[in-house]
Specification:
It holds the Pfam family PNPOx_N. By secondary structure, the chain is of the alpha+beta class. It has helices spanning 9-17, 74-81, 93-106, 119-122, 127-143, 161-173; strands at residues 20-26, 33-39, 41-43, 64-70, 84-90, 146-155, 186-199, 205-208. The protein is built from six helices and eight strands. The model is unreliable at 110-115 and 139-143 (pLDDT under 50).
Length: 209
């Protein structure tokens, strides 16, 4: 079970900065797919868990994603039956900026705004302002990038040091994930990434194995 030696910088940046990803699992033998929105943390090769007294080996030099879930869920059952999973990450930053931009355009002008501004230009429905928004939308859509990462998921033993290590790493990045890591019904899942498919703004696709 090999892993990609190199992932492009923009994918690594997304993995490090995004709060959520979409996790795809599939039951076996029925092959019924399921998709879940998950918070997670990315573990680079230099941050993987190493037992006390051991040293990094070549098999440790992989990229991992850590998530937490309840055991009485469909995705957990799917992972136990079929550890092959996929995750989707996407750059939503530009979309968020556009949403804020659109919201600001819809606000009613305040008296403090310059009197010389054409009242029609202040109207969010004015053609020139709508055209500007559409142009920004088109440009931003072209600049967005998404990546599909395939991997193998492993449920960690709750009594192990590895569980404790990755739970702490997950909670550092996502304090609100604590609800998924407490109690007898919890599972911390480690996904070892094995390849990546990246689509760029021109709809070109590159594979990284």
């Amino acid at each position: 079970m090999s892993c990609p030696e190199i992932l492009p910088d923009h994918v690594l940046s997304l993995l490090k900065t995004s709060k959520y990803l979409h996790l795809a699992t599939c039951s076996k033998p029925e092959c019924i797919p399921s998709v879940s929105l998950m918070n997670y943390t990315y573990i680079s090769p230099d941050r993987v868990y190493v037992p006390k007294g051991a040293e990094h080996s070549s098999s440790d030099r992989c990229h991992f994603i850590i998530m937490a879930t309840q055991r009485d869920t469909e995705k957990y059952e799917n992972i136990i039956q079929n550890p092959q999973v996929s995750v989707l990450i996407h750059d939503w930053v530009t979309a968020k900026k556009l949403s804020l931009r659109k919201s600001s355009m819809s606000n009613t002008p305040t008296p403090a705004e310059p009197a010389q501004v054409d009242p029609e230009q202040q109207n969010p429905d004015h053609p020139s302002r709508l055209l500007n928004l559409l142009q920004e939308l088109n440009q931003s859509e072209l600049s967005q990038m998404s990546a599909t990462l395939r991997g193998y998921a492993e449920h960690l033993d709750t009594s192990s040091d590895e569980f404790d290590y990755y739970e702490k790493e997950l909670l550092k990045a996502n304090p609100d994930a604590r609800v998924y890591t407490r109690g007898e019904n919890v599972s911390v899942v480690k996904v070892k990434l094995v390849n990546a498919k990246v689509s760029d703004r021109e709809n070109n696709t590159k594979f990284y194995d």
